[in-house]
Design goal:
alpha/beta; Rossmann fold; 4-stranded mixed β-sheet; two-stranded parallel ribbon; 6 strands; 29% strand
């Protein structure tokens, strides 16, 4: 999106992740601003956007519903969100011999959703416009309800 001349901003709760993102953007000559802030602390007055993308985040949060409420206040009008599809995610981890002691659960994953469960959670807050299922994720393009 930055290559297309669109304004792109990113945030992550971990400063080291933000530092790495800045380094990679600079190496590619991309004008992207980054901020080390947890999603729950993003202020709509400063961080609203026509499209908000939240990929590979919700499963790490103790209160993903709170995060979705914040994202809904930022998105004007679009939100693209994704999570790993369970139980497929864990099964694929186990098939490759990863995280066997945790039955395939990736470290840091607190939330687990089937496709149906994730879409139900999104539908409580948004109009789900389109769903894609690139293996092994569920992605929902949502519009904030007026």
């Amino acid at each position: 999106m930055a290559r297309a001349g669109l304004r792109v901003r990113g945030s992550d709760a971990f400063p080291e992740t933000v530092a790495e993102a800045r380094r990679r953007a600079a190496a590619e000559g991309l004008d992207i601003s980054y901020e080390a802030t947890a999603v729950q602390l993003l202020d709509p007055a400063e961080h609203s956007a026509e499209l908000v993308v939240c990929c590979e985040v919700l499963e790490h949060l103790p209160d993903p519903e709170e995060a979705l409420d914040v994202l809904g206040s930022l998105a004007s009008p679009w939100l693209l969100a994704s999570v790993p599809r369970e139980p497929l995610w864990r099964a694929l981890n186990m098939a490759r011999g990863a995280y066997l002691r945790d039955l395939g659960n990736t470290p840091g994953h607190l939330g687990h959703w089937s496709k149906r469960g994730f879409l139900e959670m999104l539908s409580e807050r948004f109009e789900v416009v389109e769903v894609r299922n690139p293996l092994p994720w569920t992605m929902g393009l949502c519009r904030v309800r007026s």
